[in-house]
Amino acid sequence: MGRQNEFNPSVTSDQSKNREWHFNAPSHIQRMIKASPLSKELRGRSTMFHLCPFERMMKFRLSEGTTKASKVPKIGKVVQLYMKNVIYIERVQREG
């Protein structure tokens, strides 16, 4: 009897189904999937949410890797924004 409350039929743990949902999500959900956390000072002085969707010409700090102190964070501006595919950032190129 108790296990029926713990089971939610609308949620799956299947990796392929979650991947399919992620890449085929509607645009209003894609905005929140591709959102970034706000800095502490912006979080305190504004009424925005903790997660802010990307917008054109928005400046942000890009930190890479697990050890942030060893790498210098890059500051860039969003140049182009394709929610379904990629986000282009000024002065930031992916290597490899």
Write up this protein.
There is one protein chain. By secondary structure, the chain is α+β, with helices and mostly antiparallel strands. The protein has one domain: SH3 type barrels (Roll). The chain is built from four helices and five strands; from the N terminus they run H-H-H-E-H-E-E-E-E. The chain has a three-stranded antiparallel beta sheet, with no helix packed on it. Strands 1-2 form a two-stranded antiparallel sheet. Strand 4 (74-82) and strand 5 (86-89) form a beta hairpin. The longest helix has 9 residues, at 15-23. The model has no long low-confidence stretch (mean pLDDT 70).
Layout: helices, strands, pairs:
Blueprint: H1 2-6, H2 15-23, H3 27-33, E1 35-37, H4 40-45, E2 51-53, E3 59-62, E4 74-82, E5 86-89
Name of the level-1 CATH class: Mainly Beta
Number of DSSP strand runs: 5
Strand arrangement across the biggest beta sheet: 3-4-5
Low-confidence stretches: none
Structural class: alpha+beta
Rounded mean pLDDT is: 70
The CA-CA distance between the termini, in Å, is 53 Å
What is the percent of helical residues?
25-40%
Strand residues, percent: 15-25%
Please identify, by name, the CATH architecture.
Answer: Roll
Q: What's the gist of this structure?
A:
This protein is an alpha+beta fold. It has 4 helices and 5 strands.
For this entry, give a set of tags:
extended, SH3 type barrels, 3-stranded antiparallel sheet, 4 helices, 96 residues, alpha+beta, single chain
